[in-house]
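Model it.
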Amino acid sequence: MGVLDRYYVYNDTIFGILLHCLKLLNYSIHPPDKLNNKFMGQEQLEDIEVKLLLEGVYRYYGFDFRNYALASIKRRIWNTIHAEGLTTISGLQEKILHSPECMERFLYKLSVNVTSMFRDPSFFLTFRNRVVPILRTYPFIRIWHAGCSTGEEVYSMAILLHEEGLYHRSRLYATDINEMSLRKARTGIFPLESMKEYTQNYLLSGGKKSFSEYYTAAYENAIFSANLKENIIFSQHNLATDHSFNEFNIILCRNVLIYFDKVLQMRVHKLFYESLIRFGILGLGRQESVKFTPHETDYKELENGEKLYRRIH
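Modeled.
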C-alpha cells in the first residue's frame, strides 16, 4: 500500500470513527446545546474518549475491545497512558493510530496476563480425578486453552497429561489475542523465583513426581523440557471476533470472561458450546459460570465449586 493509499485509509477510518461515535451518543443533526455543554462531567467525557479509542483500534487494526468491561479497560488504558508518558486518552488514541509499535504495547496492556502454573490446585486435582477417566475413553484428545496468556496453565496441563499417560494422544491448542504473550509462551521459559510457588501448586494438584524434573535452572530462569511443547500449538485468536476452528473434547478458559461485558460473554459462551463435542468438558475460572447463560441447561457440573462442566445436550 502506498503512502497516498495509506493516507486515504487512515482518514476514512477517522471519519468513520467520528460518525460511529456520534451515533453511539445519540446526537441529533443539530445538537448545539449538547455539543457545547461546558458542564459535561469528566467521567462522561472520559467515556466518550474511551469509545473513540476502542472504535479506532477496531476499525484500523481489527482488534475488538468494545465489549470489554468498562471499569477494567479504563484501568488498563490509563496504565498505558502513564507508561507512554502521555496525559490524555485522546493523546493515546493519536499515538496508537500512528504507531503500530505503540499499538502492540497497548495490546499487551489490555490482555489479561495474570496467570501461574497449576493455578487453583483443587481445579487440577478435580481434573485428574474426574476428567482424566473420561479422557481415557477417547482415541485422540483435543484441548483448547482459550486466552492462554503466557502459557503457564498450558504447560501445567501438558505435565498432568504426561503423568496420566495421555499426552502422546493429545493435541493442545493454546490461543490468545496477544502475540507478545504467545511469543513468551512458546519459549517455555519462566522466572526461577516462581518455581517455589509452582512446586507447591503442583503437589497440591496431585503431582506424581518431583516438579524440578520438568525444568532446568539457568541463571534466573526455569527452562521447561522441550518434550512438553511437542503437542502444543500456540496461535493468535480473538474471542470477540473470531470463530471456532475445530471440535474439542476439552475447552479451558479460566479467568477471562470476567473481563467481558454481558454481550461479549454470551457470544463466547455460544462459541464454546458450538466448539465442544457432546459430553465434552468446559472449564472456567472461580468467578465464572454457565449460570444465567442461554446454555445453562446444556451442561452438568462435574463437582460443586470447581467450575468444570460436562456438555450433556
